[in-house]
Design a protein that fits this description.
By secondary structure, this protein is mainly β. It is built from 2 helices and 11 strands, in the order ββααβββββββββ. It has a 6-stranded antiparallel β-sheet with strand order 5-6-10-9-8-7. The radius of gyration is 15 Å and the shape is globular. The relative contact order is 0.26.
Length: about 160
């Protein structure tokens, strides 16, 4: 068990609370995810720039990991970076993501993964706006979005 921040039935972010990891075999992931989600979340691929469904989303709400439903980013921290991917300057809760070095394709960068299911969300760069100076570029298909008025419906059982 790890400690994460989740939403309760009142739509409030609570935690840290212990919730189970999502350590599933590949065939279960393939059954749960669309082919695009599987390719991005489980194979650490990247969407084509300017093609993601959430890039131009301007609604207020919360972005969840498409693999396990853990809340990872808020629209309050979203900004238009011009990079072609949904961009955020900070996570909803630092405990809900993992940052690790990624040197694939000869690039030096940090991979952003979901802390509960280890799904690949995107990358973070040190050229973002204040207050963090970070730019989290995320794959739209690695995320699910819930408008603010629907977050309570996605309450985590750990928050009961």
């Amino acid at each position: 068990m790890k400690l994460f921040y989740v939403f309760n039935r009142a739509g409030q972010l609570v935690g840290p609370l212990p919730t189970a990891d999502w350590d599933l075999p590949e065939e279960k992931w393939r059954a749960l995810l669309s082919p695009d989600q599987f390719r991005l979340l489980r194979r650490q691929d990247t969407e084509v720039a300017f093609c993601g469904m959430l890039l131009d989303n301007k609604q207020q709400g919360v972005y969840f990991c498409a693999g396990c439903g853990l809340p990872v980013f808020s629209s309050d921290a979203k900004f238009d970076s011009g990079s072609g991917w949904p961009s955020f300057y900070q996570p909803l809760a630092a405990a809900n993501i993992i940052l690790r070095p990624d040197q694939r394709n000869g690039l030096q960068r940090l991979e952003v993964s979901c802390a509960r299911c280890a799904g690949h969300l995107g990358h973070v760069f040190a050229d973002g706006p204040h207050p963090s100076g970070q730019r989290f570029n995320l794959n739209s298909a690695s995320l699910l979005f819930a408008p603010s008025n629907q977050v309570a419906r996605l309450a985590d059982p750990a928050a009961d």
